[in-house]
Design brief:
alpha+beta, 2 domains, globular, 5-stranded mixed beta sheet, 229 residues, Beta Polymerase, domain 2, 5 strands, 10 helices, 55% helix
Length: 229
C-alpha cells in the first residue's frame, strides 16, 4: 500500500487550512489542505511501519497518521490544533467525527507556551529579514499577528477560533505593507503581553486529557483490526 493509497482510501478527516480557513484569502490565495488518515492496524504488525505523515498526493496537501496527529495535538502543536478547528471541512467519516468531538480534550494551558514559543521563532525570522532587507516578509507578519490573536483568545475563552472575523481588513493591510513595521512590532508585543496575562486566569485545564484521547485511539485501532479479519 503506497502513501497515496493511505491518504486516498483511509482519510478520516480533511479540511482547508491557511488563508482560506483564517478568513484572509484573496484572489491569488492557494488552497492548503490538511488531513488525518487511519492506517489499517495490520500494517503496524510488519517491520516496515506505515508513515507518520504524507505529503501530497495533491499540491499543498499534507496528512498525518492518526496516532502522530494525536501526539502532536496533545503537545499543543499550533498547526495541528488549528487543523481540528478549521471552519472548512471537506471530508469526515464516523471516526473523524469522533476525533473532532474530542478536540476539547487536546486543549490546555500548555498552548500558552507552545503558541508563544512558535511565535517567538517566527518573530526572530522577521527581525532578521528587517535587518537584511529593511522590511519583513509582510505576509508572514500578518500570519504571526493572527496566531497571537488566536492564542490570546484561546487562553481567555477556552475555545480556539481561527477565523479572524472583523480583524480581516487590518491584517490584510499588514500583508500589503501598508502598516509601518514599528506599529506591527508594537501590535505583536501587545498581543504577546495579553496572552501572557490571560494564561494565569485561563479557564483551560493545566494539561490535556491524555486518557480520553488514548481510549479513542485504542478503539480506532481495534475497529480497524476487526475489519481486516
Amino acid at each position: 500500500m503506497t502513501s497515496a493509497d493511505l491518504v486516498r482510501d483511509h482519510t478520516i478527516y480533511s479540511c482547508v487550512m491557511g488563508s482560506r480557513a483564517f478568513g484572509l484569502e484573496t484572489e491569488d490565495s492557494d488552497t492548503d489542505r490538511r488531513g488525518v488518515f487511519l492506517a489499517p492496524t495490520p500494517l503496524f504488525w510488519r517491520f516496515d511501519k506505515p508513515p507518520a505523515h504524507v505529503e501530497g498526493p495533491s499540491q499543498e496537501q499534507f496528512s498525518w497518521e492518526l496516532e502522530r496527529f494525536c501526539e502532536l495535538a496533545l503537545r499543543a502543536n499550533p498547526n495541528v490544533l488549528e487543523c481540528l478547528h478549521s471552519p472548512v471541512v471537506e471530508h469526515i467519516d464516523d471516526t473523524g467525527r469522533e476525533l473532532v468531538a474530542l478536540r476539547g480534550a487536546f486543549l490546555s494551558r500548555q498552548a500558552h507556551q507552545t503558541f508563544v514559543r512558535y511565535a517567538g521563532g517566527q518573530r526572530r525570522k522577521l527581525d532578521a529579514d528587517v535587518r537584511q532587507y529593511g522590511h519583513p516578509r509582510w505576509k508572514h507578519a500578518m500570519h504571526l499577528l493572527r496566531l497571537l490573536m488566536s492564542c490570546r483568545d484561546l487562553l481567555r475563552t477556552g475555545e480556539l477560533t481561527i477565523h479572524v472575523g472583523t480583524d480581516r481588513d487590518r491584517l490584510l493591510a499588514v500583508k500589503r505593507g501598508e502598516v509601518p513595521w514599528a506599529e506591527v512590532e508594537s501590535w505583536m508585543t501587545r498581543l504577546t503581553e495579553e496572552a501572557d496575562a490571560a494564561a494565569a486566569g485561563s479557564p483551560l485545564p493545566g494539561a490535556p486529557d491524555h486518557a480520553r484521547v488514548e481510549d479513542f485511539l485504542i478503539r480506532a485501532r481495534r475497529a480497524s483490526a476487526l475489519r481486516a479479519l
